[in-house]
Automatic annotation (TrEMBL), chains A, B, C, D:
Substrate binds at residues 64, 114, 160, 167, 191, 243, 261. It catalyses: L-glutamine + H2O = L-glutamate + NH4(+). Homotetramer. This is Glutaminase. The keyword Hydrolase applies. It holds the Pfam family Glutaminase. Gene3D superfamilies: DD-peptidase/beta-lactamase superfamily. InterPro entries: Beta-lactam/transpept-like, Glutaminase. It comes from the Bacteria. It is an enzyme of class 3 (hydrolase). Its EC number is 3.5.1.2. Keywords: Acetylation, Hydrolase.
Length: 309, 309, 309, 309
């Protein structure tokens, strides 16, 4: 499998030469400080091999990539009842849009836009205290990645808590419809901490590996979800994982993926590998500009697109 | 491969027992006359075998399924310049919505909603007369299916011409933005005839086979499109092929697909087969209710989902 | 009453010095040719005196000001049944917006946005031919102004017919909801001709005088509408007469008024006078920029605002 | 002036017989307890006479009627700079809609929808503490009504504080755009207390009298605002005072007015009188059903419409 090592090296080299690097998210002050020149890539194959290049071992703020893990955890808790409170359709609007909520009685279109992820966290809260729910999410991600060193960056969480007015608006709005049940402060306490998870590309690709391996973590041998549920989470990532750029990502990369405004993307090649990339600059839809391009090259050279033999 | 024959037989039997059959499209008077009890299914594998059950040889109005063929033809004519005039994102709204057009300067979100397909036909018109463009589309579909008996049902075309006020509105609206260049009457002349193509499930599954076979028609050995373009058309079908039910179809069936209000659906299992189903009753999003269910059973039993190994 | 003559002279002089003159409507080619330096003003008092200045006797295209006369005529024909098909609320959007129609089942918010005026013309068509309906409108306006020299500028009507794609979109869209009953071509035939009425400020102020005089034409002594209906038409002009600038016009001028993209405005000071102004340059909402300013000066100096003693 | 006394008596009698009484606001638990059979009316003429009937001396929650007083107070503090942060156009949507804010960068359309009134309170907060700003509003309303017994119903304020999620959403949303400057909790602290002002019809009609009397309080002889500002506030009430029922109120009643979900309406007949009505049941737009009808009768019989001589 030296091919894959050569591939990630080549991608890292190629990406570093690109001059258009996008725009680092500035609405979370703590994220705005990140150097836009970072780039990392990590591929973990379903047989457990790891191929990394660039800043693949440097932790970054995974932000909305965490929504995949929170959804998986919540589905494990309440099963398909989760879908009573959140939809499964692409939104056709920005990640933080509130318009759709007003038109559809406060029910978010999918669990990967902010509003939907806030509902998922309301479910995770259940009868717990925010601190406990946050603890469970961290434990779950450590379990997925088989790595107890994964942590939450509290400075980032605090930064979002102080400036995340729009997320407060989404939460309060949904509460007015009864779509979330806990006070906005509590639900967003969970949400901001979950988004502040710091992980390296290597850790992220390992955490997502169960989605490429029919729901089973090949390294530990433990089942995370059923084969069917893994497929369905992949389907949601494909149609909704990149906000209003989901169609474009499917068209160019051809793999399920979930992005975060920290510049990370987790992509899944079913039966083959889990891939994580990181480049902090974002495109107009809030997805990593060079991260998307790196995945496009990777998909082309490996032929891993799910859309063709 | 008797398994697949047993499968389509079982599906046809199971579907015929279902009592909720959806609602036959009634806004095109000619379609409203169709008996809701029809059901057909046809699978054509990439090695050329055909497995059919039910009314698989009865022609029906393929309606919007034709948008896949028109898009393929237009891409062959103008290449990626087509994307200057139409987007590649799910719309987040109904198949005939005009709201998005007003918010986005008359540029349709994708080629599979009505507005986008009308732009594609404006491109196909090019310097031709409507009659010629229609002729080219019919020839192309006959070529794809390797079947010269495919025809246009002129009574259906006329019925749409007389009652398709909403499509006239879409075309006039886009023309006000300069997004379409020909008179609405001409572009819709092409559009209504293309939608009025009459095909059986067997013909439809054969016509779509190139999308499952890396762009090549295995029966005739002729290349239709490049491997890359086949993948990309599949990606568009996955994210946009079922209007505002695209996420749901991806979640339940896990295959690229395109539906039509005549009750037909074309689905693609890359590397494996092209599948066509037909049941006239529609669900709330305008997609065949039982057709979707039939494909869900098919995908579960074959394991052909693109989202899992 | 020499005061009013001095006033219109002063206003004409003052307005001619202003350098920001707005932008002449260019989407109707025939209108784009008009010299932006024209300015006219005419006041007709309820006791029949006329005070004019500037180009007050030069005919211009009254465009949407005609909607007041068409509405009055239609109310005379079908009475309050008219309100089954069109609302009475400000739209909160542009004069040619289609978004609201999709959200509210094709029913226009008021008779003074384009969609609403098209419905009014659909009512005026009744069982008639377009030519007859157009004839009735012209006769009615001549009757109101007591002036048989008023005519339709056919070059303008033709120009709109050829380029009014957006109005065709509105009409077709409403027809898809059954809100209009006649073919779009016929209804718009009436609409474009009505909008192409050519009138001078003097004629316009006389035609609108019945609204200032409790529904009665003081010059001819004939009743046009009841006192109540005159009030209600004035109320509609106040809340809806300037599209998405209606609030601003009420705030600054304080009189019921109706604007047209030809640069004309008809304003009504109940119990006092009817006022017409004309300056072809438009503001961002499609209302005459200098015409609005002229009316603001006029209202301040006369104290005719309906909002204060 | 016994005519007016006879009129209010007749109206109170007539209204009490009506069976359709609308629906008492239930989203504020404290308001839901109010008996729907109350009805009060008070007319205060510009020469200081008072004519009352029904429950005209029973205090009720004036809710959004308070927005008129808060706006007047804020204009006194910052003048026309206020309009940098809030518009002057009817909204075309519900009183608590958030859609418009997303489309227009968080700037509310007018000061009488919830979002706009929250901005006004953000201005009133200035450098003060919420308690101080609330105190100023109460003092101002007492000054206007010349009545120191007017008070805030703290149970209502608390009830809104606990359940006003939608208003929290509006405030947080606007803060994300920088349109409001203080924390949502503080601004809404002011807002909920202002809305919880308890006043009788008699008090309310006296408090609004300056708007009928060219900005001057005839009873005390003190100037509240300039004649021009009084006119302009009246214009805003006419175009925006009844949310998405403003056009209807103008059409039927023909007077500037502001409603509240407590069932109160303040109406202004410039140069003649200030009128307050109260009936707790609301129509579909959130305006008092019978209160509107009472004002319609009153306007018809007095001929006080601003739209006709």
């Amino acid at each position: 499998m030296t091919d894959l090592q050569a591939l990630v090296d080549a991608i890292a080299e190629e990406i570093q030469t690109r001059e258009q690097r996008g725009k680092v998210a500035d609405y979370i002050p703590q994220l705005a400080k990140v150097d836009p020149h970072h780039f990392g890539i990590a591929i973990t194959t379903v047989d457990g091999q790891e191929f990394v290049a660039g800043d693949a071992d440097l932790p970054f703020s995974i932000q909305s990539v965490s929504k995949v893990f929170a959804l998986t955890l919540a589905l494990g808790m309440v099963g398909d009842r989760l879908w009573n409170r959140v939809g499964r359709e692409p939104s056709g609007s920005a990640f933080n849009s509130i318009v759709q909520l007003e038109h559809e009685n406060g029910r978010p279109r999918n669990p990967f836009i902010n509003a939907g992820a806030i509902v998922v966290d309301d479910i995770l809260l259940g009868g717990h205290k925010p601190r406990e729910a946050i603890g469970e999410i961290v434990q779950f991600v450590r379990f997925l990645a088989n790595d107890d060193s994964i942590y939450i960056d509290h400075a980032v969480a605090r930064s979002e808590q102080e400036t995340g007015f729009r997320n407060f608006a989404l939460a309060q709005f949904m509460r007015s419809f009864g779509v979330i049940e806990h006070p906005a402060e509590q639900v967003l306490g969970v949400y901001f901490h979950q988004c502040a998870l710091a992980m390296s590309c290597r850790q992220l690709s390992k955490a997502g590996l169960f989605l490429a391996a029919s729901g089973r973590n090949p390294e530990t041998g433990r089942n995370v979800v059923s084969r069917d549920r893994a497929r369905r989470i992949n389907a949601l990532m494909l149609t909704c994982g990149h906000y209003d750029g989901s169609g474009e990502f499917a068209y160019r990369v051809g793999l399920p993926g979930k992005s975060g405004v920290g510049g990370g993307i987790l992509a899944v090649a079913p039966g083959k590998a889990s891939i994580a990339v990181w480049s902090p600059g974002l495109n107009v839809n809030g997805n990593s500009l060079l991260g998307s391009q790196a995945l496009e090259i990777m998909a082309q050279r490996t032929g891993w697109s799910i859309f063709g033999a």
